[in-house]
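FYI - complex with nicotinamide-adenine-dinucleotide, inputs then prediction.
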Amino acid sequence: MKQICVVGVGYVGLVTGACFADLGNKVVALDVDQKRIENLKKGIMPIYEPGLDELVKRNVGAGRLSFTSSYAEALKGAEFAFIAVGTPSGVSGEADLQYVAAAAKSIAQNMTGPLVIINKSTVPIGTGDWVADIVKGAQSREIDFAVVSCPEFLREGSAIGDFMSPHRSVIGSLHREAAEKVAQLHLPLRAPIMITDLRTAEMIKYASNAFLATKISFMNELADLCECVGADVKEVAAGMGYDARIGRHFLDAGLGWGGSCFPKDVKALAFMAKENGLTPRILDSVTEVNYDRRRGAVAHMAEMVGGLKGKTIGMFGLAFKPNTDDMREAPSIEIVEHLLNAGAKVRGYDPVAMEVARPILPAVEMFRDPYEMAAGCDGVMVVTEWNEFKQLDLDQLRAAMKQPVIFDGRNIYDPPLMKQKGFVYRAVGRGARPA
Ligand code: NAD
């Protein structure tokens, strides 16, 4: 059993804390957001993540997991402090490190014994050294510490499974002893452990996210060509995916990537390249292709319903992906903007993200049920591939709609079946391209 402090109880910090507690460690999770901490103490989760509620309650009940907003309390007796605060995009695409800096400073001011400080946040290359300088400068007396990078690769929606069964644990530090202590902590996960230097570990995280985003943008560019030449991008992806050198993952064409990581991480990596005098041609294109997806989807819908002015368009799904309520950089936000600019009225339904979405999309009329939302719609767009939408009663859906028009932005339906059911249906990369 190790004593661990986790700084920041968001998607990564809360999952990290709960999972390490479940592995038998004693974890104190800290956040500056006092409301968040008060709610967690009452058993109210700040985010929707499958299985998290039960995991947190079980470990709180067993006395292994607790919450606080006091750094002094969180660091008392801790051997490890994970920094898991946000690193959003700054104005020029750089990672904004103000939360990391504040966390490092608070740790330095409140640590009472030797500590391994672990950056779990996705941070620009060189941040580990910078955090070490902040800690050294903010300590009131000299206490031993080491900074280790241990980037997180979990995906929202399957975060607990991803944390508990990672493909690898990457640990970077110039202090071998500290790196090995962190490796020990990860041994129960039974994944390959790679120990490397700080900067390389930091780069592995950005490189991984940017590469995955590149795969998706590549397939999206291909999807447009498939529409022009009459090929089916879903079949193309399947055919490519059999090749072990390519792999099937992240080959799904659609509305492009969103969320709290890919957009900011691709931009931050491109920013770092520019800062170093390089021209990140691939990275810039990956982002550009991605944002065109939203415009392209709205062009499809406009053509299918004969112009958007005065039309009512429904959105199946608002969250940036299924099984989460995260709306950060969700494609739905841009799609709604394009639809409203074109004079359409917009309705929305999402199984879990509506509460989070409401203040972000105030002009969207929200419904509690997908059929109710579709009733009276001139067209519906599938924006998030929640399983719920795959199981809809298509006859009931068609009967409810003013015009049975569906643009399937996530390729969840079978085109021949949709035609047979009487829908005017288009998917991504599987048929006509808008004029
Ligand atoms: P989040 O916004 O959900 O959570 C961050 C939390 O940190 C918030 O609760 C905030 O109140 C708290 N915080 C901010 N400043 C603080 C401070 N000084 N002291 C204590 N708490 C503080 O963020 P997230 O999505 O969990 O992401 C955290 C980091 O992990 C980011 O760098 C992100 O890129 C990376 N990451 C995220 C994911 C993901 O799927 N969300 C996956 C891998 C890596």
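The chain has a mean pLDDT of 97. The two ends are 63 Å apart (CA to CA).
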